[in-house]
Design goal:
Layout: E1 21-27, H1 31-46, E2 53-60, H2 64-74, E3 78-80, H3 83-88, E4 94-97, H4 105-113, E5 117-120, H5 128-141, E6 145-147, H6 155-165, E7 172-180, H7 197-200, H8 204-219, E8 223-231, E9 236-238, E10 245-247, E11 253-260, E12 265-271, E13 280-287, E14 290-295, E15 301-306, E16 318-321, H9 343-358, H10 370-389, E17 393-394
Helix pairs in contact: 1-9, 4-5, 5-10, 8-10
The structure holds nicotinamide-adenine-dinucleotide.
């Protein structure tokens, strides 16, 4: 019973040896720079004993005043305004790319060639061709590589993975996923880099859709074909810091029907035009033995239905709180019911990568490698192609 008491994961753990240090070079100090820095800072005392202690060596950005402030705020030793210097710093062993999508390939390839391990934000690249070059670079360099598909590190989602792996859902029939936000609903919202194809590669598709595509591959398997539609609702917007308007060159929303190699079928949709939807990522998986549903705004919960659960009078979808000490990642946190949230996914993913680096473990299958990032980009390209050509597109990966 002791593992069900819930008050087992407090400060009792003891380290048997000092943990090695890994020097981190962080590119970008904004949204993801903040989320990743927060994770590195928490690891040494929350994930105890840690596989390695991240040493915050340097942070990079363009604006000197802002990056100087970020250095101070997050506690990095140094800052750089040129990513080339960040990548070349001999104290950096892990290069963390939290820059916009058009800044993923060049610095990441340079870092791999300099022998640095890599964590790169998603989508890995703006196209499958660009992603392939990145995959080739890390493979050739022999460094550890991970794409920040951080939702794999939600305890409830990893628990879903474990349940599917042990056959609890039986044969999988459906994967139905949506990722919806509302922040583009105002036509006067500026045309930032996320609305420019040259900078972002795609819109809602690469930004939000790439996450649910990754979850589909992680949980259900490889897609075989897609049939999709994309739409741009607002064609131009004010350019930031200018009187002019700029063209929106990416999708505002996409809808796709997916066929998986294992025979399952599914739907995927993402949009940033859904009033009231803040960060509404939901999926439901239906199998021959039951169903599992997850909603990001109910981060600590899963809804499950087991077809053969005893007692037909009370059989139905059941809400499960995924916060027991035996649930994934929970040994680092709190007594059961003392919930965690979105920021903790970054703690879990960075810990996973540090463990892979210092103990020479594989990043796959729990973490998304650059191979996963490349395959994800192939699927995004196929969705765009299907929408343009009005036909179903087969998914084909290069070796
Ligand atoms: N995993 C997730 O849940 C998640 C969430 C949001 C964003 N992202 C991804 O993270 C990446 C960054 O997104 P964000 O929201 O943090 O963007 P952002 O616009 O908030 O920040 C981008 C950062 O890059 C820096 N930067 C831009 N150009 C640069 C250059 N030439 N040299 C040095 N620094 C430069 C900016 O100064 C800023 O610090 C994107 O790829 C995005 O898709 C992932």
């Amino acid at each position: 019973m002791s593992d069900e008491l819930g008050f087992t994961n407090m400060a009792g753990a003891r380290a048997t040896a000092p943990a090695p240090e890994i020097g981190v070079g962080m590119l970008g100090y904004s949204f993801m720079g903040k989320a990743h820095s927060n994770a590195y800072k928490k690891i040494p005392y929350m994930v105890y004993p840690p596989p390695a202690i991240p040493r915050l060596v340097a942070i990079g950005g363009r604006d000197e005043e802002a990056v100087k402030e970020a250095r101070k705020r997050y506690g990095y030793d140094k800052y750089y305004t040129d990513w080339r210097e960040l990548v070349a710093d001999p104290g950096v062993q892990l290069f963390d790319n939290g820059g916009p999508n058009d800044l993923h390939a060049e610095p990441t390839i340079a870092a791999a060639r300099a022998g640095k391990h890599i964590l790169c934000e998603k989508p890995l690249a703006r196209s499958s061709q660009e992603a392939k070059k990145m995959l080739d670079a890390v493979t050739e360099a022999g460094v550890k590589h991970m794409v920040s598909f951080n939702y794999r590190f939600v305890p409830a989602i990893r628990q879903t993975y474990e349940l599917i792996q042990k056959g609890a859902l039986g044969d999988i029939y459906h994967f139905r996923a949506s990722y919806l936000q509302e922040w583009l609903i105002d036509p006067e919202f500026p045309r930032t880099w996320r609305l420019d194809k040259e900078a972002a590669g795609s819109g809602a598709l690469g930004d939000l859709g790439s996450h649910i595509i990754d979850l589909g591959r992680f949980l259900v398997g490889e897609p075989k074909s897609v049939m999709a539609l994309t739409r741009t609702f607002i064609e131009d917007r004010p350019l930031p810091g200018s009187e002019d308007r700029g063209k929106v060159t990416v999708d505002d929303a996409f809808e796709a029907v997916v066929e998986f190699e294992n025979g399952a079928v599914g739907t995927l949709e993402a949009s940033r035009f859904c009033p009231g939807r803040k960060n509404h990522q939901v999926f439901e998986i239906n199998g021959s033995k039951g169903s599992i549903r997850f909603d990001m705004e109910r981060f600590n919960e899963l809804e499950v239905y087991w077809k053969d659960a005893p007692g037909r009078e009370t059989r139905g979808f059941t809400k499960v709180l995924v916060t027991e000490s035996y649930h994934p990642f929970w040994s680092s946190w709190w007594p059961h019911g003392h919930i965690i949230g979105w920021e903790h996914t970054f703690v879990h993913e960075a810990t996973h990568l540090l463990d892979a680096i210092v103990n020479d473990k594989d990043v796959a299958p729990y973490g998304a490698t650059f191979e996963d990032g490349y395959r994800n980009a192939v699927i995004c390209d196929a969705i765009l192609q299907s929408s343009q050509e009005g036909r179903r597109v087969e998914i084909k990966y290069q070796d």
